[in-house]
TrEMBL record:
It comes from Urochloa decumbens. Keywords: Signal. The keyword Signal applies. Residues 1-26 form the signal peptide. This is Pectinesterase inhibitor domain-containing protein. It comes from the Eukaryota. SUPFAM superfamilies: Plant invertase/pectin methylesterase inhibitor.
Length: 189
């Protein structure tokens, strides 16, 4: 249910932003580029480039402000987090976890809550164009979100095997992608 709600709001925001005229930005003085240009500039590896192109698959106009791309990447990370959090909840609800496994997944639930709050904060800053006048370092906020997802990975690695590990790796990559795309905005380091 949470994943469906997150997906609905992501698609709603994307639909609203997609009604803007071609080559527009939601924020003033933000560079515009194509998805191809943005993904090439943001990604340092073929994996990140492919992930970026996939994340931007629903962006319809040929040229957009990088603020839109940053928002889409943040929302894709949030949707991925929601899917993993749902899987963690299902494992915890199953009742068949040994003590150590239960503790690890409880930690992951906590870390995913923090990561979700952090990325929701990033999305709010992007939607409100507040990154342009922000006192703190938005880049550090992105990096904090990556670290929160990585804490779950570190905990899960203590288990002999985990169905969450692969999901967490995807989430870590989505968080890193959001950060890399966010760095296209002026002032984000």
């Amino acid at each position: 249910m949470a994943a469906m709600t997150a997906a609905f709001f992501f698609l709603l925001q994307l639909a609203i932003i997609s009604t803007l005229p071609p080559s527009s930005t939601a924020c003033p003085d933000v560079p515009s580029m194509t998805v191809e240009q943005a993904c090439r500039k943001a990604a340092g590896t073929l994996l990140m480039y492919d992930l970026c192109k996939d994340a931007m698959r629903d962006v319809t106009y040929p040229t957009n402000g990088v603020d839109l791309y940053a928002l889409v990447a943040a929302k894709r990370a949030l949707a991925s987090y929601a899917d993993t959090a749902h899987a963690v909840d299902a494992l915890l609800a199953g009742g068949s976890l040994p003590g150590a496994g239960r503790e690890v997944y409880e930690l992951c639930k906590e870390f995913y809550g923090e990561a979700t709050d952090t990325m929701n904060g990033v999305a709010a800053v992007l939607v409100g164009c507040r990154f342009m006048v922000m006192e703190g370092d938005l880049g550090q906020v992105y990096r904090d979100g990556v670290a929160q997802v990585e804490r779950c990975r570190d905990a899960v690695r203590s288990l002999p095997a985990s169905p969450i590990y692969a999901r967490n790796l995807v989430d870590r990559n989505m968080a890193a992608l959001a950060y890399f795309v966010g760095r296209l905005l002026a002032g984000v380091q």
